[in-house]
Specification:
alpha/beta, 2 domains, globular, binds oxa(dethia)-CoA, Peroxisomal Thiolase, Chain A, domain 1, four-stranded mixed sheet, single chain, five-stranded mixed sheet, 24% strand, 32% helix
Length: 330
């Protein structure tokens, strides 16, 4: 095992240019700007262009993260893509991004599916693999084209999601106590049916009837997910703070999964940490699943919300129901 710290060397993000506002959405589905804003905090979301694949968005975010880190694709020997919307069921989108980006063929490349917690699972996996001493630089990408799995006729889900990408370059530093200082991951497998895509997999392969029934679209029991989300995010945050003998008020900035402003407000109240210490961009992007945290992290860095020495808490939940938290010292 390597005694070096595992640090984030660079961040990058990408959001497609097309903005879909609540007002525009309410012309095609029975909803209103007022309902969406008050129930979720979302004002608009981004939608990928026709022909713009998940891998294309991932490449944009990755290039920015590499530039921020001062590294080249040739420096990457581990590439992990967290996504539930791969370009195709196989091969891994990581391999497609490897080719588009020019990452060397001796790099390990794979996808990881932990839904909205995917980026935290991927980050922890990258850190563990770097810790083995067998890899030098990891590129971890969270990217989603959720517009392709959302049922645009289902007002209970379609108003919530959007497309986007975020990426980080992870490497080693000789400075002790920096970077990823802890993670806590878990899953509640008894809640699989609360949030899932029931059709199209090996359990229920796609048929003309399943497509007509819309079983290849995302289904969600929103109220149940909401309650569990608040509980597991609060627990994941508390557990990691306790594990590292920290108080919530020692956290400079919390970067939560951006699913619903009311969920973020509830976590803020439970942790007794003012909302100003939470990074929020759900209003502009909606829920971008695995892209949500790295997109927010990159915006937080670029807007000066994270400074050297700061302690940042990342916390997420998602289909599975997976959950996770991570502490980063900058
Ligand atoms: O990354 C994980 C992803 N998932 C989440 O984080 C989602 C967690 N859940 C939520 O964010 C919230 O539960 C929602 C935003 C999905 C829904 O908010 P809610 O306050 O739980 O509303 P509700 O589901 O109880 O619906 C209230 C009413 C219903 O009408 P009735 O039965 O009271 O007449 C819905 O039919 O609002 C209706 N409704 C809508 N009305 C206008 C549901 N969706 C819409 C809509 N526009 N888009």
């Amino acid at each position: 095992m390597s005694p070096l710290s595992t640090v984030i060397l660079g961040t990058g993000s990408y959001a497609p240019g097309r903005i879909l506002s609540n007002a525009e959405l309410s012309q095609t589905v029975d909803t209103s700007d007022e309902w969406i804003r008050t129930r979720s905090g979302i004002r608009e979301r981004r939608i990928a262009a026709p022909g713009e694949a998940t891998s294309d968005m991932g490449v944009h975010a990755a290039r920015r993260a590499l530039a921020d880190a001062g590294l080249q694709p040739a420096d990457i020997d581990l590439l992990i893509v967290a996504t539930i919307t791969p370009d195709m069921p196989m091969p891994a989108t990581a391999c497609i991004i490897q080719q588009k980006l020019g990452v060397p063929t001796n790099a390990a490349c794979f996808d990881l599916n932990a839904a909205c917690t995917g980026f935290l699972y991927a980050l922890d996996t990258a850190c563990a693999m770097l810790g083995s001493g067998r890899y030098r630089h990891a590129l971890v990408i969270g990217v989603e084209k959720l517009s392709t799995i959302v049922d645009w006729k289902d007002r209970t889900t379609c108003v919530l999601f959007g497309d986007g990408a975020g990426a980080v370059v992870v490497g080693k530093s000789p400075v002790p106590g920096l970077g990823l200082i802890g993670t806590k991951l878990g899953a509640l497998g008894d809640s699989v049916d609360l949030l899932c895509i029931p059709g199209g997999g090996s359990n229920a392969p796609a048929t003309a009837a399943s497509i007509a029934a819309g079983s290849h679209f995302l289904k969600m029991k929103g109220k149940e997910v909401f309650k569990l989300a608040v509980r597991v995010m609060d627990e994941a945050a508390r557990d990691i703070l306790e594990q590292h003998h920290l108080r919530a008020d020692q956290i400079s900035l919390v970067i939560p999964h951006q699913a619903n402003l009311r969920i973020i407000e509830a976590i803020s109240a439970y942790l007794e940490l003012p909302l100003e210490r939470f990074f929020v961009n759900v209003d502009r992007y909606g829920n971008t699943s695995a892209a949500s945290i790295p997109l927010a992290l990159d915006e937080a860095r670029r807007t000066g919300r994270i400074k050297s020495g700061d302690l940042t808490l990342l916390v997420a939940f998602g289909a599975g129901l997976t959950y996770g938290s991570a502490l980063i010292r900058w």
